[in-house]
Hints:
By secondary structure, the protein is of the alpha+beta class. It is built from ten helices and seven strands.
Amino acid sequence: MAENRKSYGEGCIAAHALDLIGDRWSLLVVRELMLGPKRFGAIKARLPGIATNMLARRLEDLAAGGIVARADAAGASGYALTAQGDAVWPVVRELCRWGAGMAGHDPRLPISPTALMLSMRATIRPAGRFTAGFDMDGESFALTADASGLHIRRADAAVGEMSFAGQPNDMASAIYGPVPLAQVAATGRVRFTGDLARGQGFVDLFRLRRPVPAGEDA
């Protein structure tokens, strides 16, 4: 670990974890790499509030902690998660679920394509089988929903029995908002291809719900 990194200086294993990923922006950098390698500029484009030198520092810190490594991305040098970095997913998943029930969330603020995909992965209610393609702001994903959850991979184009295309914030509104998919598609903000009834069934798998206290049924 880089010697200039700050530490909580505690033997607590939670404090040790925060020493590795608890600095501002660190967890969001990890988030952006969870669906595959990215170049430096692609990471920065999805974190509009981060300064270039801050991103470079966070990547250096994450690499020193064994969470991120250099990798090929889109035919050029980039960054990817290590096995230890991939193992952070349950932390991100539970933060998504916990944050969904906390007041003050503003859905008008920017959301990256990867962030939306991961939020869907965290909030899906497994049921039936659907395949869907998503195309958002130059990034495409292929999704399969089944009884085990939501499986996501990057793709060259949106492929599946249905496809969604649009900007990430409009897509988030289509997935999580109360308006039926047919009405959303009619506005043109999200372009949908496929059977609308199946599409609505797919969208209905995702709900932002309050956290369930220990001892209560979900």
